[in-house]
Amino acid sequence: MIKNITCIGAGYVGGPTMAVMALKNPHIKFHVVDINQSRIDAWMSDELPIYEPGLFEVVQQARGKNLFFSTDVEGAIKEGDMIFISVNTPTKKYGIGKGRAADLKYVELCARQIAEYADDDKIVVEKSTLPVRTAQSIKKILSATGHGPKFQVLSNPEFLAEGTAVEDLMQADRVLIGGDQDEAGLAAIEELVKVYNAWIPRERIITTNIWSSELSKLTANAFLAQRISSINAISALCEATGADVEEVAHAIGTDSRIGPKFLKSSVGFGGSCFQKDILNLVYLCEFFGLHEVARYWEQVVTMNDYQKSRFGSKIISTLFNTVSGKKIAFLGWAFKKDTNDTRESASIYVADQLLNDEASISVYDPQVPEQQMYLDMEELETRPMEVNKQRLTMTDDAYEACKDAHAIAVMTEWDEFKTLDWQRIYDNMKKPAFLFDGRLILDRKKLSDIGFEVYTIGKGK
Ligand code: NAD
Ligand code: UGA
User: Which of 336, 339, 344, 412 to mutate to test the pocket of ligand 2 (most atoms within 8 A of CB)?
Assistant: First the structure.
């Protein structure tokens, strides 16, 4: 009987997942720990560290009752009957597998900490996205202690998307739990099934062997990203031929075998996971000698890079082959709407491309702070920070960002951009006033009637 659940890692996954689980399981105590003190402080305050619609209400209902946040990793490991590992697994930036493999050092550290501090039996749950067969390494570390406690390792990948995390958790299409198929493994799976079954119908909880579960997560992300790259590839062909990518997406999406979701053409997918997980899949395929399979999936990322640079190049070529000294307004910096997350956002790469061509960029995003934007640019290491700060600025007003601009680029699909006073924006811009809609959210006809020169991804002239 599970009475205490611990989660190591209070990020975009650990925080919302545990908050919803706590709300639905009032009889279980949840303790979420992180090494990042300021993140924990924020989880305990009215200003949560992540922006996610509906999350604050959920946290408020459970926090202080059966949901607790702290930096006491040791204490939380000792008290947890079930311990979720929900730490980051970024792409490795060094050594073997650099640029492709997932960096598992944070996960390994968690396993070592659990092995060191646990003094009774635990169920350890992989919540982070991990390469298939990681559970084997975790088991090895846990069993190497030889000082008594027994461990069961489960895989329970998370499928929530940022911006809709609470909704996705509350009404999950499915929950996936993988574990050993022996008596102890199946018993551990059942304990986790019970936790989810507090609100997810049993038929939507899928149980598998542990390797299938690990691999299903990478596969799901690869398939989702592949759809975006596929429609983005077609967007380039639409522009060349006069077809309209939205009409094509609608026409193919009504085929029930294809389905309408995830066919929105864009400036390119971003986010912390799609690229990282596909590169990880590519690395795994190469590791197992499956070179053709690796090349196949790698193309999804190649096409995404093409889409981002194609958008940047379109801005430059349209502005008479140079943006040097010109002001470009960016509407949006986050990788999608309804999140303050900027990891791998297309904006970062398009900004870099335009800054290389000496543009001045003014950014407006309703949730991203300026400091974060500079951190994103710094990570690219393209130019000194002073130059980034001179040429890239953020304002907290969309009209200010667009004032005197030669062009506007819509980078994120925030709803509020649709209802801006576009006549006012046009009146205050340099002419010709160019507008590049990288998200297909604006009314092209209306904007053209105002006087804008509009380019929309996937739509010819
Ligand atoms: P994140 O960076 O937001 O959060 C990870 C947290 O773990 C950080 O706050 C970090 O300080 C903490 N941490 C790292 N090592 C620690 C340690 N040893 N002890 C305590 N805390 C530690 O990452 P995230 O976006 O929540 O992603 C976590 C995992 O979930 C990744 O594997 C990711 O691929 C996967 N995932 C993410 C999403 C998403 O939408 N972000 C969705 C599904 C799955
Ligand atoms: C994605 C998956 O959707 C989740 O199921 C998964 O759990 C998560 O990755 C993860 O493993 O981290 P997320 O990256 O948060 O979630 O957001 P998505 O809605 O998938 O969007 C990813 C990117 O694709 C965004 O930049 C978005 O704008 C773009 N996108 C999405 C498109 O360009 N077109 C679409 O049709 C859909």
Answer: 336
